[in-house]
Structures are given as structure tokens and as C-alpha cells.
Design a protein that fits this description.
mainly alpha; 434 Repressor (Amino-terminal Domain); 6 helices; 71% helix
Length: 102
């Protein structure tokens, strides 16, 4: 059974290990508004849906709960997760290098 928009938004964020604060900042909305979207208290406008689709790499059909799976979105999700992991490794390397300069 397809998920609702709010369930899908929350699941996408959690699957990627992201905080509401991070996602809200990157989608240019307040954390409170993202929380409202994720708990179903508010419905987003088209502009936000488009930004969220690009951000998570999924189709609007998937995000809105009209389709259960998004094959292209899964590939993008894997790429985004790999990018997040690389960024984390890069940050640890920078910290190590900065620590060795002292």
C-alpha cells in the first residue's frame, strides 16, 4: 500500500540519516514547517514538492504516494548516501590533518 506524502517525507529523511534541521535548511524552510509536513498537519505547495523531489532524487508520484517504488529514485538514493559517506570521510580527514598541524 502506498504511503502518504507525510510518511514518505519522514521516511526519506530517516533512511538517509538526516535531521529535520538539516533537511529544512537545505530545502529553505523552517524546521517547524518540515515537522508539520512530516506529521501531516500541513500540506506543501507545488514549489516545495518540486524542491523535495530534486533533493531526495525521487519522482513526484513517489513522493505524493501515488506510486510505491521509484527505481530511478533508488539509484539516486544510493548515490546520495555514497556522497554523504564521502563527505563524512572527508571531514574526518580534514580534522586529522588540522590536528597534525599543531
Amino acid at each position: 500500500m502506498p504511503r502518504s506524502f507525510s510518511e514518505t517525507m519522514s521516511a526519506l529523511r530517516r533512511e538517509r540519516g538526516l535531521s529535520q534541521r538539516t533537511v529544512a535548511a537545505e530545502l529553505h524552510i523552517s524546521q517547524a514547517l518540515l515537522s508539520h509536513y512530516e506529521n501531516g498537519a500541513r500540506e506543501p505547495g507545488l514549489g516545495f514538492v518540486c524542491r523535495a523531489c530534486r533533493y531526495y532524487g525521487v519522482s513526484a508520484d513517489y513522493l505524493l504516494g501515488l506510486r510505491e517504488a521509484d527505481g530511478q529514485g533508488a539509484a539516486r538514493q544510493a548515490l546520495r548516501q555514497t556522497l554523504n559517506e564521502l563527505e563524512a570521510v572527508t571531514a574526518r580527514i580534514k580534522e586529522a590533518l588540522e590536528g597534525s598541524d599543531t
